[in-house]
Each structure stands twice: as C-alpha cells, then as structure tokens.
Amino acid sequence: MKTLLLTNLIYALVLPIIEMFIGAYIMRNSSDISLVVVFQLALYTGIPLTFMINGFLLNYVHISKLYSLGMLLSGISMSAMMLLTELDTTGVFAAGLIMGLSYGFFWANRDYLALDTTNDSNRNYYYGIETFFYTLTFIIIPFTAGAFIATTEKYGWFGGDTNVAYYILTACVFGFTIIASILVHKGGFQNPKKSPFLFFKFHSLWNKMLGLSALKGIAQGYIVTAPVMLIMILVGEEGELGIIQSVGALLSAVMLYILGRTTKPKHRLLVFGFGLALFAIGAIINASLYSSLGVVLFVLCLIFARPLLDIAYFPIQLKVIDKVAAIENRNEFAYIFNHELGLYLGRLFGCGLFILLAWYVSEEAALRYALLIIALVQFTSYFVARNIVRDKVMVSDGV
After folding, report:
1. Is position 192 within any domain?
2. Most buried residue, 131, 162, 212, 384, by most Cβ within 10 Å?
3. Are the CB atoms for 261 and 130 separated by under 8 Å?
4. Looking at the 3D structure of the chain, how many domains does it have?
5. CB under 8 Å to 126, separation ≥6 — which residues?
6. How far is residue 379's CA from residue 317's CA, in Å, rounded to a whole number?
7. DSSP-assigned letter for residue 88
C-alpha cells in the first residue's frame, strides 16, 4: 500500500498539467472551445476500450508493466498534441484517444491494486492520504506551470513563444512518469487470478452501483474542463488559471487530510452529500453571475467538492465490489471493467450535451447552463448512494 501511494504521488505531479494545461493549450491554439470537450470525449472513449484490453493482457503481462505503460502513454499523448501543426477535430480526437489509452491502463490497474492492498477498515484513510497527495500537487503544480507559461510570454523567453513552455512541460511529464514507472515495479504486486471478466447479468446491488457510476460520469468531463474554459475566457490566461487552482487546493488540503484520518465508513454518505451540494451551489453561482467573480467562486466550490466526492465514492464502490464478488464468485476485475462502462455512458451524455449546446446554441450557453443542468442531475446520485448503503447486503456489516 505504501509503494502504491508513493507511485501515485509521483504520478500526481503530472495530472494537473494533463487535466488543466492541455485544455489551455487547445484554447490558446484554436478558436473553438468545443475542441476541449472533443479531446475529453476521445479520452473517455479510450478508457473503457483499454479496460477491456487490459483485462485480457493481465492473463499474460505483469500488472506492474501495464500500470507503467499507462503512465508513460500520457507523455506520448501530450507529445502527439504538440506535434500537430494545426488543431482540428481529427487531430485533437486522436491525441485524446491516446490519452484515453493512458488513463485506461493507469486506472484499471490502480483500481485493482487499491482493492487488493486495502480493506474496508482502512480505505477512508488510504483515500484520504491519496486525495491529500493529489490536492497538494494541485497547489504546487498549477501555480508553477501557470507562472512559467505566463512569464515566458511576459519576458520573451524562448522568443516569447508560449508553445515552447508547453514543450518543456511535456518533457517534465515524461520524466515524472518514468520515475513512477520504475517505482511501481518495487511493490511486489500480483496479477488477479485468471478468470472471465466479461459478464452481462449482475446482482441487483451492482446494478444500483452502475446507476451511480453513470451519474458520476455525467459530471466528470465538466469537473476537468469547465474550470479551464471558464478561467481562460472570463478571468485571464494560464497564470491566473494556475493561481486560482493553487489557492483553492491549498484551502482544501488540510481539511481532506483530517477527513481521511477521522471519518469512518458510516460518514461516507454525509461526505458525499456535502460534495454534491457544493458542486450544485458552484454551478448555480456560475450560471447566475457568469463573470470573473462567478468563475472564482465556482472553482473554489469545485475544488472542495471534487475530493469530497472521491473520498466517499471510491470506498463505497470498492465495498460493493467486495460484497458482490463474494456473492457471485467472480473476479473483482469484472466489476472494475463493468463500472467503467457505466462511467462512460454518463460521460458520453455530459460531453455530448456540451458539444450540442456549443454548436447549435452558443458557447456561452454551453458554459453557463449545461454545467447547471449536469450539477442538478448529478445531485440525484445522493439518493442512489443512500439506497446502496442501505441495501440489506451492504448493512450486514456496515459501510
């Protein structure tokens, strides 16, 4: 578990660059903000495809190698984006698909290793520590990377070409992923047992979990791309993007560490509800004001909401997998793969809604109202989660 946490900490150093500054790069080098969502849609399309490929490869390739491949592909995807002479839908979609392959190999194996190296009694602590790491990197990296890009333009470094700054950041991503890839091989991890992982019928409890995953997926594309697009349009450029993200992450870091240390399984639903409420409040503020102040308040709400949702959602998901895998006597990876399909359906709806509004109504309508619709729809996931934790199978020993 310690090796897994340390590996994820190092890889967490590249995630803010991937999640935030790829979107900023696309917006800087094109006039079409819907390309940012096209990138995300391609990314999310690649993830379930890779989950399935990963399931077959686990029968022949060690899990640490597949985990390493996922991390390394993120640098390849960024390089592919930087090599495009002109950003168009095809090129951006291809780069996004490679990033989807990266995320697929990373998350498929990360989820299994988290399930395998933890138990229900220490998962709040595990995800509290891990989320604290991710929050910490979202303090340091956005500020540093944003300042580097802004300073390049301000002082004329590299001839004032900000794209060179992006190339250097891509090289840093490669460096960190190589270090993380080497470290993961020191964990002594074991592959799951060879068994089928493609199923079409599941226990009723798992069907509820699939519904919850679809609702989570609806908002995921927006959680990643919305702050970037709103800040670049209404607030400023990369420097401001980095500062806002860093300040917000700093405010939430200590809170998350305390929650990870003090909350118990019985508190997960309460934490989940707070996260959903904050996301909805931020979306309402953004739709009402649609200004620089509204963006700052929305991003602050989102920075608090996102880790609250994760610290509650993932332990619930893994607990359900523990229960249903025991009942149906199936490989845990079968549920990890199936869960990703539920997320993808939600992501497809969320990204599709934004693209349709941007293309057929206006970009402002997409940024202002699609986010509100998504937040209100996702709020219903609280009731689905409550139904899951109160299921008779789950309450036999508590969640």
Report:
1. no
2. 212
3. no
4. 1
5. 1, 5, 114, 118
6. 18
7. -
pLDDT of residue 12: 83
Element (H, E) at 299: helix 292-328
Chain-centroid distance of CA 130 in Å reads 13
Q: What's the CA gap between 46 and 26, in Å, rounded?
A: 19
**By C-alpha distance, which of 343, 121, 321, 114 is closest to 205?**
321
The reply to whether 238 falls in a domain is yes
pTM of the model: 0.74
Would you call 390 helix, strand, or coil by DSSP?
coil
State the sign of the Cα–Cα–Cα–Cα dihedral 151, 154, 155, 158: positive
In a domain, 164, yes or no: yes
Q: How far apart are the first and last CA of the chain?
A: 21
What's the helix, strand, coil split of the chain in %, to 5? 85, 0, 15
| CATH number of domain containing 105 | 1.20.1250.20
Question: Do residues 191 and 11 lie in contact, with contact meaning Cβ atoms separated by under 8 Å?
Answer: no
Tell whether 191 is covered by a domain.
no
Chain centroid to Cα 96, Å, comes to 14
Q: Rounded to whole angstroms, how far apart are CA atoms 110 and 74?
A: 15
Q: Which two tokens stand for residue 263?
A: 């909350």
Whether the CB-CB separation of 216 and 313 falls below 8 Å is answered with yes
Note whether 66 and 117 are within 8 A (CB): no
**C-alpha span between 132 and 137 (Å, rounded):** 9
Q: How confident is the model at residue 399 (pLDDT cuts 50, 70, 90)?
A: very low
8 A C-beta contact, residue 116 and residue 60 = no
Count Cα neighbours of 314 within 13 Å in the Cβ-side half-sphere: 23
What gap in Å lies between CA 296 and CA 282, rounded to an integer? 9
> Using an 8 Å Cβ cutoff, are 297 and 245 in contact?
no
Contacts of 316 (CB under 8 A, 6+ apart): 212, 268, 272, 385, 388, 389, 399
Model confidence pLDDT, tens digit, residues 46-63: 988 998 898 889 889 999
Amino acid sitting at position 131: T
The range of the structural domain enclosing residue 219 comes to 9-185+199-389
Residue 133 is predicted with a pLDDT of 78
